[in-house]
Design goal:
CATH superfamily of the largest domain: HUPs
Distance between the termini: 47 Å
Radius of gyration: 20 Å
Number of helices: 11
Number of domains: 2
Structural class: alpha/beta
CATH architecture of the largest domain: 3-Layer(aba) Sandwich
Order of helices and strands: EHEHEHEHHHEHEHHHEEEH
Number of strands: 9
Helix content: 25-40%
Shape: globular
Bound molecules: pantoate
CATH class of the largest domain: Alpha Beta
Length: 299
């Protein structure tokens, strides 16, 4: 497996793969890789001939009080995992390579970035869309794989790619969970043993909502209250948000009538975790997703 640090080298390697007639699959990451990331690499491997993984802890998507400095860095293990799961190349630039001077050029998706995680992490998605655009410009992949655990991130990137006519297909890959149901995340390694146990409340809250929905409850407010009640049983947990939104534009909905995303962020001690599930009613047209969304109607 090739490892590159510079943009020139990365471009040269990818150009050689292209000349050999290979299609390029891309998995952008911030390292601290786990089975969730490896599933993305395997998905890219299945669809493409040459798989590039980027490992870059992107400073512009962290707020001033967030965990940029202590974000786990496990580079040699990451490279091993990339190689074992079928990556052909790891691009691991440092900040100087990605942001050689004061960054004055930003890519910003409006509106859907203000909600859910965007409301608690101002500027986060602007950092994500900017670095992903830079990485897409460097790698120029045919496809790029992202995990559904960061459901809002994938929606934002899909919107960016569609609206900026970027020639890349975004592949959404399913959430990968620990055997007890906790969604895999690089941040899980921050959890103390007691916190690790209580972190299960995210999954349990989603299960409760799914169970009520399956029993016929479609009122978002009722489902949210039931989820809050689950999480309140865990003293180390503090809810950041629970949102029930249409899965296209992430607008809050009152009643589940079409494919719907339930997403939540919960602090377990100091660690902020996210998780989500999608509910699909067994009835009704999918076409009116986002009908209750004011800004969509204005477009
Ligand atoms: O999901 C992540 O790890 C990051 O947000 C990404 C997409 C690699 C951009 O830095």
């Amino acid at each position: 497996m090739i490892i590159t640090n510079s943009i020139d080298d990365t471009r040269k390697q990818i150009a050689a793969a292209r000349r050999a007639g290979k299609t390029i699959g891309f998995v952008p990451t911030m390292g601290a890789l786990h089975e969730g990331h490896f599933s993305l690499i395997r998905a890219a491997r299945q669809k493409c001939d040459f798989v590039v993984v980027s490992i870059f802890v992107n400073p512009t998507q962290f707020g001033p009080a967030e965990d940029l400095d202590k974000y786990p860095r496990t580079f040699s293990q990451d490279c091993q995992g990339c190689s074992l799961n079928g990556a052909d190349m790891v691009f691991a630039p440092d900040s100087q390579v990605m942001y050689p001077d004061e960054n004055l050029t930003w890519v910003n998706v409006e509106n859907i970035t203000d909600r859910l995680c965007g409301a608690s992490r101002p500027g986060h998605f602007r950092g994500v869309t900017t670095v992903v655009t830079k990485l897409f410009n460097i790698v120029q992949p045919d496809i790029a794989c992202f995990g559904q655990k960061d459901a809002q991130q994938v929606s934002v990137i899909e919107t960016m790619v569609r609206q900026l006519n970027m020639p890349v297909t975004i592949i959404r890959c399913p959430i990968v969970r620990e055997p007890d149901g906790l969604a895999m995340s690089s941040r899980n390694r921050y959890l103390e043993p007691a916190e690790r146990q209580q972190a299960l409340c995210l999954r349990l809250a989603l299960d409760k909502a799914a169970e009520l929905f399956a029993a016929g409850c479609t009122e978002a407010a009722t489902l949210i209250t039931a989820m809050e009640n689950v999480i309140r049983q865990y003293p180390l947990a503090r809810i950041d948000y629970i949102a029930i939104v249409d899965d296209q534009l992430l607008c809050p909905i009152e009643k589940i009538e079409t494919q719907t995303l339930i997403a939540l962020a919960v602090f377990i001690g100091k660690t902020r975790l996210i998780d989500n599930t999608t509910l699909t009613p067994p009835y009704g047209p999918y076409a009116h997703a986002g009908e209750t969304c004011q800004w969509r109607q204005l477009r």
